[in-house]
Design a protein that fits this description.
Layout: H1 2-25, H2 27-42, H3 58-70, E1 76-79, E2 84-85, E3 92-93, E4 98-101, H4 103-107
Antiparallel strand pairs: 1-4, 2-3
Length: 129
């Protein structure tokens, strides 16, 4: 139960906080998102955003995904459900062992992310996915 709470609620709160921080220190990104939102509002007859309108805001989606990457919870834990041999190693994780997954290590790994500490929503553009 505690794991569910920390992975869900705390993760969302942390991601939103990190995203707001980065939008504050990167006004050019904030302005680009605001322009995208304004464009959607101006094309509508009513002043309500509907779910289908979110598809017209790809840069907002990219910024949120980058916020998830930078604002992730540091780690999570799971119970191994079967014996599993780590590829390239002789170590076998036995069934029932608690395994800590270092999410932050993956999200900041330069092997997977160029300049991993930089807030860059364009990482998630269609061209870069």
């Amino acid at each position: 139960c505690v794991q569910f709470f920390t992975d869900g609620y705390e993760g969302t709160a942390q991601t939103i906080s990190v995203l707001m921080y980065h939008l504050t220190i990167h006004p050019e990104i904030q302005e680009r998102i605001q322009n995208e939102i304004d464009d959607v509002y101006e094309s509508k007859d009513k002043d309500e955003i509907e779910e289908k309108d979110l598809n017209k805001m790809p840069y907002l989606d990219q910024a949120i995904l980058e916020g998830f990457r930078l604002g992730c919870v540091p780690s999570t834990a799971r119970i191994c459900t079967k014996d599993w041999k780590i590829p390239g190693d002789n170590f076998v994780i036995p069934k029932g062992m608690k395994v800590t997954i270092p999410i932050i290590g993956l999200h900041y790994d330069p092997k997977y992310w160029k300049d991993p500490s930089k807030f860059d929503p364009d990482r998630f553009s269609p061209e870069n996915r």
